[in-house]
Design goal:
Order of helices and strands: EEEEEEEEHHHEHHEEH
Radius of gyration: 18 Å
Strand content: 25-35%
Strand order of the largest sheet: 1-8-3-6
Shape: globular
Distance between the termini: 47 Å
Number of helices: 6
Largest sheet: 4 strands, antiparallel
Number of strands: 11
Helix content: 25-40%
């Protein structure tokens, strides 16, 4: 592998699979990437959605030899992959880049902690509302905010740890209350935040 490589991936294309050799860090320049963990019994869980400006695959920097998750393009996307040793050198020699990456890792750690708390203490309806707000980045907006990636109810169910039928039930409820709108895209209204609070 070259030390840095840009590549385009079509929607649903595999970027890497669980168990593959972990030898690079990825940066998303356009699109959305889904990170999925699979259990030995064959159950999948979406553990993260990475959007433009985000990194993934960084566990290789601390000695992870094999991928613990799979990465799949949720939309058509463009990525830059940086070989592990080249990425480590960037961190050591470029303070500005190190600051950006550290900020990313801190945000990821905070988000992971919030996700765990959400999963442990909130019912699936609140988990779904929070996931939709995060996907749309709608908390600080006044009007409806579209989710640019088409996300199936199955994927939402995997993200929040419930069934597709429960997601469908809550989505219909949110729509009846005017918190979301379906059309060519899924639009989220900031009022959905009241469901979380």
């Amino acid at each position: 592998m070259k030390s840095r490589m840009a590549a385009a991936y079509r929607k649903n294309a595999s970027i890497f699979k669980q168990g593959d050799t972990a030898d690079a860090v990825f940066y998303v320049t356009r699109g959305h990437v889904k990170i999925v963990a699979a259990s030995a019994e064959g159950r999948d869980a979406v553990v993260a959605v990475i959007v433009a400006g985000g990194f993934f695959g960084e566990a290789c920097l601390v000695g992870q030899g094999f991928r613990a998750t799979s990465a799949t393009a949720m939309t058509d996307c463009e990525l830059v992959s940086v070989e592990r040793s080249a990425f480590a050198q960037l961190l050591a020699t470029e303070p500005g880049f190190s600051d950006i990456f550290l900020a990313h890792m801190l945000r990821r750690a905070i988000r992971s902690e919030e996700d765990l708390i959400d999963h442990l203490f909130n019912p699936s309806e609140k988990r779904l509302a929070r996931a939709l707000l995060l996907l749309a980045n709608a908390a600080n907006e006044e009007g409806p905010v579209p989710i640019t990636a088409r996300i199936s109810q199955e994927t939402l169910a995997e993200m929040i740890g419930t069934t597709r039928s429960r997601v469908s039930f809550f989505m219909n409820k949110f729509r009846r209350h005017g918190f979301i709108r379906y059309g060519t895209s899924l639009e989220i209204y900031p009022a959905l935040l009241m469901t979380v609070l």
